[in-house]
From TrEMBL:
Organism the protein comes from: Bizionia paragorgiae
Gene Ontology process terms (BP): ergothioneine biosynthetic process
Keyword terms: Iron, Oxidoreductase
Superkingdom of origin organism: Bacteria
Protein name listed in UniProt: Ergothioneine biosynthesis protein EgtB
Pathway: Amino-acid biosynthesis; ergothioneine biosynthesis
Domain DinB-like: 8-136
Length: 382
């Protein structure tokens, strides 16, 4: 119990620490429907504990503010109406100060509850809430970066910019054919989309030990691959044309040299660093251009123990689908993962912006194939 209380308080404090470099003006703007403001992340992660735990498990609990259920619900249809996703940046009131008071209120209530021998259900929900908040910590960073990138002054968030590089080996890990078990099999926490461990047969394959670098990706650009439909899925080609995409997100050519916006400001592209903010369409096209392919999520999982991962989320060639015997949970928690199992692709691993100890080799992240704003990169297979 003591460990869970500590994990709760540590996680909640870390979210607020991520906001310490912000000016008050940074908390509210929303640059796209998919990029929520920091203030909304602070409130939504708090609403999660109030809505799913305190309201149901504390006798005579008094809701902090009845309007917050509408303002800070994300996508839980079973919990009532909510503000449109693209309107989150219009919530200028309540103030940032009020949201921090909201967090203090919920933290007090949660600490009292957790220290008074709560039920197994409360413990399980608290663990889920901690992991939910860790997800939003990474989203807070990536959403903030997207918003800051639209500021022509290219503001600096802090020295840490979540880019990274590793020694380049150009080596491949060779994996033999066989029947393998994939999915979560231990008693540790996992999301329901990892459950349903099952066997898969894999043909022999090789998977790159390195992720694709900026320098390697520039060769793709300079070969006019963004202008050659040969390398692109049809939907990807349409996405390029409709959005005039010709380089990774945050890249900009200045006097013939590539620069990129980072959370430390605008900087020259480091050719040896790992390329990030790549969509599935770009990852797939690059793999085709290079003469390889993307790994499936099952290939990635089987190889993960022998790979160095955690530097960028890695696109796989697998659609986000339920595992055998997947069951949607009763109540609002059933909306957490299952209802998104269409038109999305799976990413594996973690990024430098992922919360510590949040990922694992069975973790299934998922985004739409055109998504670029996450720290997503490319690992090749053949």
């Amino acid at each position: 119990m003591e460990n869970l209380v500590q994990a709760y308080n540590t996680t909640r404090a870390h979210t607020q620490n991520l906001c310490k470099p912000l000016q008050i003006e940074d908390y509210t703007p929303q640059s796209a429907a998919f990029a929520s403001p920091p203030k909304w992340h602070l409130a939504h992660t708090t609403w999660f504990f109030e809505e799913l735990i305190l309201k149901k498990h504390v006798t005579n609990y008094k809701v902090f503010d009845p309007s917050y259920g509408f303002l800070f619900n994300s996508y839980y249809n079973s919990l009532g109406d909510r503000i449109q996703r693209g309107h989150r940046g219009l919530i200028t009131r309540p103030s940032v100060d009020e949201i921090y008071k909201y967090r203090e209120h919920i933290d007090r209530e949660m600490n009292v509850l957790l220290k008074n021998l709560p039920s197994h259900e409360v413990l399980a929900l608290t663990t889920l809430g901690i992991n939910h908040e860790q997800q939003h910590q990474e989203l807070l960073i990536t959403d903030l970066k997207f918003t800051f990138s639209h500021n022509p002054t290219y503001p600096k968030y802090k020295d840490t910019n979540y880019t990274c590089k590793a020694p380049k080996t150009n080596e491949w890990l060779e994996c033999t054919e066989g029947v393998f078990t994939v999915g979560h099999t231990t008693d540790d926490f996992c999301y329901d989309n990892e459950l349903g461990a099952h066997r898969v047969f894999l043909e022999p394959f090789k998977i790159a030990k390195d992720l694709v670098t900026n320098g390697e990706f520039i060769a793709f650009i300079e070969d006019n691959a963004y202008k050659n439909p040969k390398y692109w899925l049809d939907n990807g080609w349409q996405w390029l044309q409709n959005n005039q995409i010709s380089h990774p997100l945050y890249w900009k050519s200045i006097n013939g040299k590539w620069h990129q916006y980072t959370l430390s400001g605008l900087q020259p592209v480091d050719l040896e660093a790992i390329v990030t903010h790549i969509s599935y369409y770009e990852a797939s096209a690059y793999a085709f251009w290079a003469g390889y392919r993307l790994p499936t999520e099952f290939e990635w999982e089987i190889a993960a123990a022998q790979l160095d991962w955690g530097m960028a989320w890695e696109w796989t060639n697998s659609a986000y689908l339920p595992y055998p015997n997947f069951k949607i949970a009763e109540g609002p928690l059933g909306e957490y993962n299952g209802k998104f199992m269409n038109n999305l692709m799976v990413l594996r691993g973690a990024s430098k912006a992922t919360a510590a100890n949040h990922s694992r080799h069975t973790y299934r992240n998922f985004f739409s194939p055109e998504s670029q704003w996450q720290f997503s990169g490319i690992r090749l297979a053949k």
